[in-house]
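Query form — protein DUF2157 domain-containing protein

QUESTION: What is the three-dimensional structure of this chain?
INPUT:
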Amino acid sequence: MDAEKRKVIVREIHHWRRSKLLPEHYCDFLMNLYVDESTPKPASLMGVSASSVANSNWKIWLAIMAVIAALALSALNFNSFGLPMQIGISTLFVIICYGFAYRHYQKAPVISYLLCGVSSIALLFVGLYLLDLYAVSSANAYVGYLAFCSSVWLFNGLVGRMAIFQICGWLGLVGTYGWLLLHKLDSPGWFSLEISWIPVSIVLIWMAWLAHHTNKQAASALLLVGSIVWFAPEAMTFLTDVDMSSRFIQLSFTGKLVSAGVALFLLRKKWVEWVM
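ANSWER: The structure tokens for DUF2157 domain-containing protein are given below.
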């Protein structure tokens, strides 16, 4: 198609957008078909086009202002609400953010990631705030809530195919497991730590191998977390007293680092297929 015909079609699409003859996402789809590299693309910010803002309806602006006002008033009066209402407001906010994130994932992925991040952080900090507000001093409650948040992050990362939330979810669950080990093992030795963590690393890497046929993103996250867990025994020596010398810990870390490097090099043609 020559440039003149392309310009005519693009002008018509702009006319359809302004006149509301076609929905916004249909106009965006048609624009992507007929706009070439030499044609200036419509300005946009975080997936929202300038034309959609310029041609937006006053009802949309009123709804946005009402939502912002409701959120601000809820935050300012949060302490005066009862516990059920506090939990309800927090849950509703998190659900709405996740819902909008999934709805706009294909059209505006940056906004989708931002909303998921806001809801995930709100889920964690509001829960910790409520536990502190009501003087819950049990460490089990805090760690249990972290495990719950990690499960939600992992679930949403898998459903939305967002690797960063999958990694955060897995690391949160791994951290919960590490906390349980710290309270079960008293001055553990080298063998106790290794036997507690190495099988976890192997299982995560095995799960990555199983997942790479259907979901390479999940396989990448599992492979990364499994590789991190490989060094978890040495990392735990910074958090608890262990029955081994610092020189032995350094030798153990060096040996595992070398073995991991050799394994990754020898199996590079295999694991590259998992993640790419």
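ADDITIONAL NOTE: The chain has a mean pLDDT of 80.
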